Amino acid sequence: MTRPNIILITTDQQRGDCLSVNGHPEVRTPFLDSLAVRGVNFRRAYTTCPVCIPARRSIISGLHVGSHGLNRNHEAAPFSAPATMPGLLREAGYQTQLIGKLHVAEPGVRHGYDNIIQSETPNDRRRTSHQRRNDYADWFERQSDAPHTLAQGIMSNDRTARPWPLPEHLHHTNWVTNAAADFLERYRDPSAPFFLHLSYWAPHQPALPPQPYWDRYIGTSFTPAMGSWVPEREWQPGLPLPAQRGPFQLREMREHAAGYYGLINHVDDQLNYLFDRWSCSPLSSADRPTWIIFSSDHGEQLGDHHLFRKTAPYEGSTHVPMFIAPLRGTVDAPGDSQHLACLEDILPTCCELAGVELPDHLGAEDGRSLVPVLNGGSNGRSHIHGEGRWQGQHWRYLVEGDRKYIRWTATGEEQVFDLASDAHECADVSGNCDLAPMRSRVDAWRAQAVTNGCDGDAALAPCAGAAPQAVWG
Fold first, then answer.
1. What is the per-residue pLDDT across 292-348, written as a single tens digit (0 to 9) for each?
2. For residue 197, what are the β-bridge partners?
3. How confident is the model at residue 453 (pLDDT cuts 50, 70, 90)?
4. Which of 285 and 162 is assigned the larger pLDDT?
5. Is 385 a domain residue?
6. What total number of domains does the chain contain?
7. Using 50, 70 and 90 to split pLDDT, how confident is the model at 455?
8. How far is residue 461 from each of residues 397, 406, 436, 441, 457, measured CA to CA in Å?
9. Alpha-carbon distance 349 to 358, whole Å?
């Protein structure tokens, strides 16, 4: 077979509903939409641990969070997977390249890539041991006389927002895009297929889109979803800027949403530029099939239920965009898919697309190829488990059918949402449904997950519409 090129595009902290093709009423993503409709758009894709390093370990290894064992960010922690996606493809003759954010373990470790151009964050933290490498910051220092990459005073987890104050070409998103253009036009080996992981930081905070994108969204009418189970509390001044729990001011959340939407729109335009530039290059690979896979490591609460950023078990944080599309040609069954998918599925999907034998280290909860779905079949996934930590509280979730079950393990509190009728999880139905099958499924998974030491001993009890004390206590 002619091995295809594969381009994996990941954003950081992009909600599953934040694509125009997924029905978002305000955010504009015309280029990504045009790719998504060529292939299969997985409307029910999830991250099994909604925080950067665990999620990215799942992408690169195909291992579920319960298999690789890290359910929180641990900067520069060693990671040695049995096999990695770029490593497997490199062994099969691929030229493998990472541009942007890797954020898997110690900076500079390649994990199977032939070459990496690495920047874990636009925030220059080269004086720290765990982020000592930042190729963007090195480049920025040569290009600009600004004293720091984030000298405007909005940091990489803040809820404040404003326009990017410097020339647009100095923006982190532009830097990633232009580095990718250089690879596609100049540094690619034309005799071999390539695997390019194009990894953007945006729309992760800081919410600093270039001015035209800020202007486009600053009038947003966005209003966060608010569950009936969320306690009514008055906003008080003095909340820390990276706080993950409010209450938040609506004005503040709308300004942040404007910056967040602007960053997504900016990435979309930059991708349009990149692919047009590549199409005009002598190395455009017109004679070799090319697959595009798009997703994000996790979502963003964006003020939903007075929660902000990631790590929570709710849809804003755990539901991610995902599509697989041919750059040229068609798939057998294009369109939206309701098959469950997760980030772990990217590795086996890439292996099957490339004709590479799947490694034998993947278990029942780990990744499964999505190629059968492209061909009109099924990936055989009936449920997805997830786990993580929010503000020190460990939780597990289960998505099965239309239901989502959440367990706060230290308190035993349970919530259940009907995602078919309540996509934003505003009504907890745990008090009037049969919890036994969901409890049993989670208990069976808990027994074999390598992170099972995180569970508490509290008796299980449905919240039945009340606020979970694990969140609001």
1. 999 999 999 999 999 999 999 999 999 999 999 999 888 999 999 999 999 999 999
2. 8, 98
3. low
4. 162
5. no
6. 2
7. low
8. 15, 11, 12, 16, 12
9. 9
Q: What is the pLDDT of residue 387?
A: 95
Examine the pLDDT at 452 and tell me if it is beyond 70.
no
* Residues with a known catalytic role: 52, 103
Return the sign of the alpha-carbon dihedral for residues 384, 63, 60, 130.
positive
* HSE value, Cβ hemisphere, 13 Å, CA-based, for 323: 25
Check whether residue 371 and residue 396 sit in a common domain: no
Structural contact between residues 229 and 467, judged by C-beta atoms closer than 8 angstroms: yes
Do 458 and 343 lie in one domain? The reply is no
Asked if 50 and 139 touch (Cβ cutoff 8 Å), the reply is no
Contact 227, 305 (CB under 8 A): yes
Q: Which of 332, 351, 380 marks a domain boundary?
A: 380
Please state the pTM of the whole predicted model.
Answer: 0.97
DSSP 278-324: HHTSTT--TTS-EEEEEEES----TTGGGB-SS-SSSHHHHEE-EEE
Pairing of strands 5-12, 194-203: parallel
Q: Are 247 and 233 a contacting pair, CB within 8 Å?
A: yes
> Hunting for tokens 């770029």 — which residue is that?
86
Residue 202's CATH number: 3.40.720.10
Task: Examine residue 295 and state whether it is found in any structural domain, yes or no.
Answer: yes
* Euclidean distance between CA atoms 313 and 470, whole angstroms: 12
Q: What is the CATH number of the domain that holds 444?
A: 3.30.1120
- Give the structural domain span for 402: 392-472
pLDDT tens digits for range 92-108: 999 999 999 999 988 88
Q: Do 465 and 373 fall into the same domain?
A: no
